[in-house]
Automatic annotation (TrEMBL):
GO molecular function annotations of the record: pyridoxal phosphate binding; serine C-palmitoyltransferase activity
UniProt lineage: Eukaryota, Metazoa, Chordata, Craniata, Vertebrata
Pfam families per UniProt: Aminotran_1_2
Pathway recorded for this protein: Lipid metabolism; sphingolipid metabolism; Sphingolipid metabolism
Gene: Sptlc3
GO cellular component, one term: endoplasmic reticulum membrane
The protein's name in its UniProt record: serine C-palmitoyltransferase
Length: 517
């Protein structure tokens, strides 16, 4: 089935299309069979290692500690040593250049089936980069573009050596926070030196015992960790499924807390703007409508969507034509579209003032270094047109063109790809474990760098290659990648789609929701 649009009155101002085509049955059977064969051979190799017939490379307990509590759980590492190790050469490849639309790669080889690597001294030049989150192309080394960053480096140095609450707040941080608030159209913002910690260290400051967190099942690990550290009760709703979310909200209001049935102190919904493994976009209008209906709070993680979607790169709030006031906590990172590091939380002044006092990251973490802050300011001013050019707007538009072109061509070739038509994150389904390594290795032979992902980062039957489209990619680069994919798709038999366009499994099994505007 194809989901071509969303109903529910006038919540959506334009058609909202996402694709999640189910694989043919034979693909699922062969995928499980592949894991089954790998598991059988894994047990066989473990047997051979136990009897000294094969060298044991993985860490083991010392004989003197055999009566202690085991430090290395043998079975828990079964997948790592017997399946992951066979294709380990496809990850952690060291590059030696800026991760722009192309990069240089240090060649390495293995003599013991990926247990160890050695460098050959050869540099693989001009590999097309289809894996970095460099959505707007701000990861660059152009001297003129980085002139202000160089100036700040000479003025402030590289580090702060203090936290924000002590001596780590500089005029650069204040300038950046004011600019972020202006960019997002909110009252205030606070920046942090690490994107992951922006979630994991600030969610515990916002909720705690007696609060309820409703989290999308595909939320990023930083959101999951922050929720767990908070001590709040966590309940999971199906990915982007409004029936599932409303059921949890309704039950939370009706039944309250377990045992006591007292009302929850807070109910907060945690979602992402673009989901980095699925390429899907949050159904923000419906979630905002449910949030208002049940008087809950909304925490929106725009790590992958800020800069990448919206007419001027202001994320999913702008993409859906909504007001920033509809979202209680706006979170995002500078590690992707802005080519820098760190993250922000923005919203009402009361919220930001509270975090300045109570955030674990503000109290204990080192402040963002000044050159990084200047890089973010440079990129954000470019997006806002404050540098006197339209280059930022051109980058946003180019990213949209590249994304739609790349996705359309993959659909036409017959690949199963996931996500929204406007999402620059493009997962291409590989399914079978044996094809993960073969795909990445053969793409590298064609001078194309890709990211392949498997279990446990994805469901065991949904291994995939994840492409990240950039505004810095030229049409020639994309065509080179697409031609290679077309050839490799035939060679590895990866063109599983049964439709000219992929389809989306029906999320709305029940009667249509009646949501408030």
């Amino acid at each position: 089935l194809q989901k071509n649009g969303i109903s529910n009155g006038t919540l959506y101002k334009k058609t909202f299309i996402e694709h999640f085509e189910q694989a043919p049955m034979y693909v699922a059977v062969l995928t499980f069979l592949g894991f089954g064969v790998g598991t059988v051979f894994g047990y066989l190799r473990d047997f051979m290692r136990a009897w000294g017939l094969e060298k044991r490379n993985i860490a083991t307990e010392r004989e003197q500690q055999k009566d202690f509590v085991p430090l290395y759980q043998d079975f828990e590492n079964f997948y790592t040593r017997n399946l992951y190790m066979r294709i380990r050469d496809n990850w952690n490849r060291p590059i030696c250049s800026v991760p722009g639309p192309q990069f240089d790669l240090m060649e390495r080889v293995t003599d013991d089936y990926n247990w160890t690597f050695r460098f050959t001294g050869r540099i693989i030049k001009n590999v097309i980069n289809m894996g970095s989150y460099n959505y707007l192309g701000f990861a660059e080394t152009d001297v003129n573009a980085l002139k202000t960053v160089t100036t700040e480096l000479q003025k402030y140095g590289t580090g702060i050596c203090s936290t924000r609450q002590e001596m780590g707040t500089l005029d650069k941080h204040v300038e950046l926070e004011n600019l972020v608030a202006k960019f997002l159209g909110v009252e205030d913002a606070m920046v942090f030196g690490m994107g992951f910690a922006t979630n994991s260290m600030n969610i515990p400051a916002l909720v705690g015992k007696g609060c309820l967190i409703l989290s999308d099942e595909l939320n990023h690990t930083s959101l999951v960790l922050g929720a767990r550290l908070s001590g709040a009760t966590i309940r999971i709703f199906k990915h982007n499924n409004m029936q599932s979310l409303e059921t949890l909200l309704r039950d939370a209001i009706i039944y309250g807390q377990p045992r006591s049935h007292r009302a929850w102190r807070k109910i907060i919904i945690l979602v992402e703007g673009i989901y980095s493994m699925e390429g899907s976009i949050v159904r923000l209008p419906e979630i905002v409508s449910l949030k208002k209906k049940y008087k809950a709070y909304l925490y929106l993680d725009e790590a992958h969507s800020i800069g990448a979607v919206g007419a001027t790169g202001r994320g999913v709030v702008e993409y859906f034509g909504m007001s920033p006031d509809d979202v209680d906590v706006l979170m995002g990172t500078f590690t992707k579209s802005f080519g820098a590091a760190g993250g922000y939380i923005a919203g009402k002044k009361e919220l930001v003032d509270f975090l300045r006092t109570h955030s674990h990251s503000a109290v204990y973490a080192t402040s963002m270094c000044p050159p990084v802050a200047e890089q973010i300011i440079r990129a954000m001013k470019c997006l806002m047109g404050l540098d006197g050019t339209t280059q930022g707007l051109q980058r946003v538009r180019q990213l949209g063109k590249n994304t739609r072109y790349f996705r359309r061509r993959l659909h036409e070739m017959g690949f199963i790809i996931y996500g929204n038509d406007d999402s620059p994150v493009v997962p291409l389904l590989l399914y079978m474990p044996g094809k993960i390594g073969a795909f990445a290795r053969r793409m590298l032979q064609k001078n194309i760098g890709v990211v392949v992902v498997g279990f446990p980062a994805t469901p065991i039957t949904e291994s995939r290659a994840r492409f990240c489209v950039s505004a810095a990619h030229t049409r020639e680069m994309l065509d080179t990648v697409l031609n290679a994919l077309d050839e490799l798709g035939d060679f590895l038999q990866l063109k599983y789609s049964r439709y000219s366009k992929s389809s989306h499994p029906e999320l709305y099994e029940e009667s249509r929701l009646e949501l408030e505007d």
